Amino acid sequence: MTGKHIWRKKGRTVNRKIWVTYGAEMLREAGIDNPDGEAWYLFSHCFSLSREEYLFSMTTPVEEGEELEQYKALLDRRISERIPLQYLIGTQDFMGYTFRVTPDVLIPRQDTESVIEAVVEGNYPHESILDVCTGSGCIAISLCLMLKPDVCIGTDIDEKALKIAKENGRRLAPMVKFKKSDLFSGVDGCFDLIISNPPYIPTKDCMELMPEVKDHEPMLALDGREDGLYFYRKLAGTAPKHLNAGGTLVFEIGYDQGAAVKTMMEEAGFSSVEIKKDLAGLDRMVIGTLA
User: Fold this and answer.
1) Residues in domain Release factor glutamine methyltransferase N-terminal (predicted)?
2) Structure pTM?
């Protein structure tokens, strides 16, 4: 019996565990990654349940009503439209904080958590921080909450993304300031730490991405132009004008871009440039100090 069959059992009441199990089965049949986890998140979102509340009430019958209809509708949309889970429920956890996300911003990912952790553990100067291409604001906000700088600014060229970043900032870290800027065009002053996760996917590869990404996440935040390195060139070449002496530049990168970005930074005057890996063992960031 597949998950969709349970919806046709008129008058039948089933419990919470069965609904989560059937949702997972539907997602699995559709080829969705992590079907058990996604079914649980959709169910918990619709019924406003914590994990503990669910575990102690798995056998509670689920009556027909608004919550159940919403759950069924979100499962259908996840399967038929391939809308990412995070956009369906409107949030994504990152570094222990919950961020609001919409299709106007990239979904924060675990890969980026590795970058944040490296920055925090690296003990770089951080009294002033600039996050370029901030998107949801997850990098700027997380670093502000963890490192407590005197100044923390996030910039983005996209007004829609900035609206989400500002919403996250008001709720999580009101001290972070967000402003519109095309890379450094709207930035004044110098900073101890500049960090950026710019668009880095080559244009030709963008249409080969999984449907959840290419059909729903903002292409403006994905497309790194012809070779994927366009924004690194612009940022690395200009960053020294916006860094204090001894300041640090941090880039998140694609797995195969480390050597190229390292060379760019060295040519721009950065020293002690390092390529660091993420938890999967892939090159994920390049970090250098302005001499």
Assistant:
1) 19-90
2) 0.92
Q: Where are the alpha helices (H) located in the chain, listed in sequence order?
A: 16-29, 35-47, 51-55, 66-80, 85-89, 110-122, 138-147, 159-172, 203-206, 211-214, 230-238, 258-267
Under CATH, which number does the domain 3-80 receive? Answer: 1.10.8.10
Q: Is-contact 171 165, C-beta < 8 A?
A: no
Q: pLDDT tens, 213-248?
A: 999 999 999 999 999 999 999 999 999 999 999 999
CATH among 3.40.50.150, 3.90.228.20, 3.40.30.10, 3.65.10.10 for 95-290: 3.40.50.150
Q: Which residues are annotated as a binding site for S-adenosyl-L-methionine?
A: 156, 197
Give the chain's radius of gyration (CA, Å): 21
Domain boundaries, the chain: 3-80, 95-290
Summarize the annotated binding site as residue ranges. Answer: 156, 197-200
Q: Which residues are annotated as a binding site for substrate?
A: 197-200
